[in-house]
């Protein structure tokens, strides 16, 4: 199930660091999570999860506090969660998750991004059936055997454990996300290199070399859209 997770995250972080847009996206996600329940991560599992993710991307504290304070202040701003599915060059598969306060605007922008960059929108379910929602948690300072033993002792089942560069990535069922984290925390590991719920493709495809730039441009355009939170795909872009 290896997805070169470190390379994927580093590539996204390097791009986002230049624009700070990742902070805006997290601010919106934190606000929405806080509005769904009480604005306290100890009593709101959804908010706790988003804050764990934000920590791995080094989101500044003031961004987090501002979003939570906005939710506490009773703002009536509301967002819809949307998922779009489509195809890129050579039949590659793409999932786009968005948070928006204007559904028509977001749908139009996503459709235009696909259409102008060699792709096309699909209907709901046309792509997602080829992906598995997966908890992805990474740690440093342990090898695969140590992580496996640690999780077995905690009686936590996972899908896969893979060593990647200087970290170990654990892939698990979505409902095991917090169980995996707690197992690590009980073993004294409180810092995570990645802590995500992601859509992992069941099979990856390799595009012809001359098509890769076109595909990467499509992904970049989609990720640049203000309302888009996550973009997943089934293309192996190598290193």
Automatic annotation (TrEMBL):
One Pfam family linked to the record: TACO1_YebC_N
Entry keywords, A to Z: Cytoplasm, DNA-binding, Transcription, Transcription regulation
InterPro entries in the record: Integrase-like_N, TACO1_YebC-like_2nd/3rd_dom, TACO1_YebC_N, Transcrip_reg_TACO1-like, Transcrip_reg_TACO1-like_dom3, Transcrip_reg_TACO1_YeeN, YebC-like
Domain TACO1/YebC-like second and third positions: 79-235
Domain TACO1/YebC-like N-terminal positions: 3-74
A GO molecular function held by the record: DNA binding
Localisation per UniProt entry: Cytoplasm
The family this protein is said to belong to: Belongs to the TACO1 family. YeeN subfamily.
Protein name in UniProt: Probable transcriptional regulatory protein JK635_12790
Record organism: Neobacillus paridis
Classification lineage: Bacteria, Bacillati, Bacillota, Bacilli, Bacillales
């Amino acid at each position: 199930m290896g997805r070169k997770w470190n390379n994927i995250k580093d590539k996204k972080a390097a791009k986002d660091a230049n624009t700070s847009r990742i902070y805006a996206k997290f601010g919106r996600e934190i606000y929405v999570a806080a509005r769904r329940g009480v604005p306290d991560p100890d009593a709101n599992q959804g908010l706790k999860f988003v804050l764990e993710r934000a920590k791995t991307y080094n989101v500044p504290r003031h961004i987090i506090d501002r979003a939570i304070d906005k939710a506490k202040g009773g703002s009536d701003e509301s967002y819809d969660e949307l998922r779009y599915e489509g195809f890129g060059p050579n039949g590659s598969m793409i999932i786009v998750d968005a948070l928006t306060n204007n559904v028509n605007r977001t749908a139009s922008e996503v459709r235009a991004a696909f259409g102008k960059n060699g792709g096309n929108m699909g209907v709901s379910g046309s792509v997602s059936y080829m992906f598995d929602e997966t908890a992805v948690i990474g740690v440093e300072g342990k090898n695969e055997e140590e992580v496996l033993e640690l999780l077995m002792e905690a009686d936590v089942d996972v899908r896969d454990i893979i060593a990647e560069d200087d970290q170990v990535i654990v892939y698990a069922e979505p409902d095991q996300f917090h169980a995996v984290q707690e197992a690590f925390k009980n073993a004294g590991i409180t810092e995570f290199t990645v802590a995500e719920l992601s859509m992992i493709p069941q099979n990856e495809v390799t595009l012809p070399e001359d098509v890769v730039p076109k595909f990467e441009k499509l992904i970049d355009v989609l990720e640049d859209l203000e309302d888009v939170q996550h973009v997943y795909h089934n293309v192996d872009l190598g290193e």
